[in-house]
């Protein structure tokens, strides 16, 4: 599936354009927002389990990162 030409900021301090990633496999998943330094989180946000991105799916990508790398897959999480 072709990805749109869209550049997004990364937590590594660079920009990623998913349409230009050359890996044979790309995993893209969305997770609940982690917050921004210039904005307050909604009231009660931290009371919601997994609200800061620590969902079982997210942890699975973290825990299996080496396995995915062996498959030449690049993994990208997008904060909602």
User: What is the ordering of alpha helices and beta strands?
Assistant: EEEHHE
What fraction strand?
25-35%
Low-confidence stretches: none
> What structural category do the secondary elements indicate?
alpha+beta
Radius of gyration (Å): 14 Å
Explain this structure.
The protein has 2 helices and 4 strands. Strand 1 (about 5-10) and strand 2 form a beta hairpin. The radius of gyration is 14 Å and the shape is globular. The chain is of the alpha+beta class and about 80 residues long. It starts with 6 loop residues before the first strand and ends with a strand. A two-stranded antiparallel ribbon has the order 1-2. The protein has a two-stranded parallel sheet with strand order 3-4. It has helices spanning about 55-65, 65-70; strands spanning about 5-10, 15, 25-30, 75-80. The longest helix has 8 residues, at about 55-65.
Keywords:
alpha+beta, two-stranded parallel sheet, 4 strands, 2 helices, 80 residues, globular, 18% helix, 25% strand, two-stranded antiparallel ribbon, single chain
Brief overview:
By secondary structure, the protein is α+β, with helices and mostly antiparallel strands. The chain has helices at 56-63, 65-70, and strands spanning 7-9, 15-17, 25-31, 73-79.
Write the layout of secondary structure elements.
Elements: E1 7-9, E2 15-17, E3 25-31, H1 56-63, H2 65-70, E4 73-79
Parallel strand pairs: 3-4
Antiparallel strand pairs: 1-2
């Amino acid at each position: 599936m072709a990805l749109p030409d869209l550049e997004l900021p990364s937590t590594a301090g660079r920009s990623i354009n998913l349409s230009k990633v050359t890996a044979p496999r790309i995993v893209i998943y969305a997770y609940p927002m982690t917050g921004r330094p210039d904005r307050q989180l909604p009231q009660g946000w931290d009371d919601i389990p997994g609200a800061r991105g620590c969902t079982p799916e997210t942890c699975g990508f973290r825990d299996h990162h080496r396995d995915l790398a062996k498959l030449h897959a690049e993994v990208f999480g997008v904060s909602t």
